[in-house]
Write a structure and sequence with these properties.
Helix content is about 20%, strand content about 30%. With about 525 residues, the protein is α+β, with helices and mostly antiparallel strands. A hairpin with a 2-residue loop joins β21 (about 275-285) and β22 (about 290-300). One of its GO terms (molecular function) is N-acetylmuramoyl-L-alanine amidase activity.
Length: about 525
């Protein structure tokens, strides 16, 4: 099964939508040099210097900030190296280098310090992190807000940055004028992309804090009151989700890489492993009024289910919906225990795909069929399959089948995988069992014992996780992850007849042990 529930915040890989609106205010701001506000006081910018955006990092003159903090700054003209010192702390940066040192520890910068005329510009986040400043960015007016400076030099009148301030902005360093000594003032740092949700954001404005696509669902985390507007369009098929009045929060940009020309996040979510979804894009679709937009582009017309959770601020667009879901099976009524066997994924949802091209859905179905045949031959239980063919089936439909059958237990089979950029991707291996509700733990412990016996793989243990089929079902329910398709040894074994036969016998044995048969 494709790993789900990863952090709500994933890396962006491509730019998305270009804003079609550019007002007079934006144009005026674009011609402005920008401002730096330190503890509610505007700092004087060097003549002819503008705040710059380098690779998504806002750069500011480092000397302007550091000298106002009372730090000692040394400039080495020959090496173009800046040293900033305060008490026992020392930070070194060099023009053109994307690494810096803080007390001897090497750190990476988002953007390398650069020299413009007699001024050195550096990313502001690095400075803020090293010297205890908080940073906000108002992209519409090109203003950097810094707070905490007074406290860092012994004062007590620093003003707090609003909690919805965006990610840090870059900084600039000013070397001495030509003909000066080798020691001058120049500090700098690195920062992520400028973002809305900063001091320029109206109080109470809804903010998009994060988004992820997993388990065939787009989940968007928000704060503030906003009702999503969802519509569909053709050529290509797409589901459009708008959040009127909303902006991106600093937390969102801090976890994503794509940044639009207006400083707001834009890009695409990872949809690997979901062939029915072409791409999912997001951007600040409109600035006046502000509107955050997500676009789910699909291979064909796709039904969906929208749900909102007011207590958590989570909006979910669930694509696990069928236009014509299968009819719910009827409980046979023989008095025997009813067991639901669920082969994960299927149809247009292949699940994980191994490096050699093997599909998880095929493994799941093969073993579940074998398990069901063994149980039916013995005649001790009634067996209900969620699917016996290669069909697309939503998560809700799997649960509905189990509920309609008044099942005594629910067993779902999957195979695991890891993303391509995961370290040691080919080495991670083993079997694990998941449950969601405490009532399912006894079943999970018994089934896991038999799962490991059936695969012979490393024992990764029993784990609690909020998965739809194990969470929403009312009977004891488990999800078995037999092994990792991204591990060559696991993959070869999982698609062997011998392992599949052995695993089917063990799953059947585990079910009988739990039911006391």
């Amino acid at each position: 099964m494709r790993r789900a529930g990863h952090r709500l915040f994933l890396l962006l890989i491509l730019p998305l939508l270009f804003l079609s609106f550019a007002g007079d205010k934006a144009a005026a701001a674009g011609n402005s040099a920008g401002k730096i506000i330190l503890d509610n006081q505007e700092l004087t910018m060097p003549k002819g210097i503008k705040l710059e955006n380098v690779n998504g990092s806002v750069m500011i003159p480092i000397r302007v900030v550091v000298e106002n903090l009372g730090f000692e700054v040394l400039w080495e003209q020959k090496s173009k190296r800046v040293t900033v010192q305060q008490d026992h702390k020392s930070v070194e940066l060099a023009v053109g280098s994307k690494t810096a040192t803080a007390d001897g520890v090497t750190l990476d910068l988002n953007a390398a310090p650069k020299q413009t005329g007699g001024t050195v510009l550096v990313p502001i986040r690095f400075v803020s992190e090293q010297f205890g400043l908080k940073v906000g960015w108002d992209n519409s007016d090109k203003i950097v807000y810094l707070t905490g400076g007074s406290a860092s030099i012994g004062g007590d009148n620093s003003a707090p940055v609003p909690t919805d301030t965006p990610a840090a902005t870059p900084t600039t360093v000013t070397p001495p004028l030509a003909g000066g000594t080798d020691q001058g003032a120049v500090p700098g740092g690195a920062s992520p992309s400028p973002t809305p949700g900063s001091p320029g954001t109206p109080v109470g404005q809804p903010l998009v804090n994060g988004a992820v696509f997993t388990e065939n669902k787009l989940m968007i985390a928000l704060t503030g009151s906003v009702k999503p507007n969802v519509s569909t369009a053709d050529s290509p098929h797409r589901i459009i989700v708008d959040f009127p009045g909303a902006a991106f929060a600093a937390e969102f940009s801090g976890s994503m890489n794509g940044v639009a020309g207006n400083g707001s996040p834009q890009g695409m979510l990872d949809v690997t492993g979901y062939p029915s979804v072409s791409e999912i894009r997001y951007a600040l679709f409109s600035q006046s009024p502000p509107t955050v937009r997500f676009v789910i582009e699909t291979a064909a017309s796709q039904p969906y289910q929208l749900s909102t959770d007011a207590s958590t601020g989570l909006v979910t667009i669930d694509l696990n919906v069928q236009a014509n879901p299968p009819a719910n099976p009827v409980t046979p009524g023989t008095g025997k225990p009813v067991v639901v066997l669920d082969a994960g994924h299927g149809g247009s949802q292949p699940g994980a795909v191994s490096p050699s091209g093997k599909k998880e859905k095929d493994f799941n179905l093969a073993v579940i069929r074998k398990t069901g045949e063994l149980l039916l031959q013995e005649g001790l239980v009634e067996v209900i399959f969620t699917r016996t063919d290669d069909i697309t089936l939503g998560l809700q439909d799997r649960v509905k089948i189990a509920e309609a059958a008044k099942a005594n237990l629910f067993v779902s089979l999957h195979a695991n995988s890891l993303p391509e950029n995961h370290p040691n991707r080919a080495k991670v291996n083993g079997s694990e069992t998941y449950y969601s509700r405490s009532a399912s733990l006894p079943l999970a412990e018994i089934m896991h014992k038999h799962l490991v016996a059936g695969t012979g793989f490393k024992d990764n243990g029993v784990k609690s996780k909020s998965l739809h089929v194990t969470r929403e079902s009312s009977m004891p329910a488990v999800l078995l992850e037999a092994g990792y398709l991204t591990n060559p040894g696991n993959e070869a074994a999982l698609y062997s007849e011998a392992l599949q036969d052995n695993l089917a016998r063990e799953i059947a044995a585990g079910i009988k042990e739990y039911l006391g048969l």
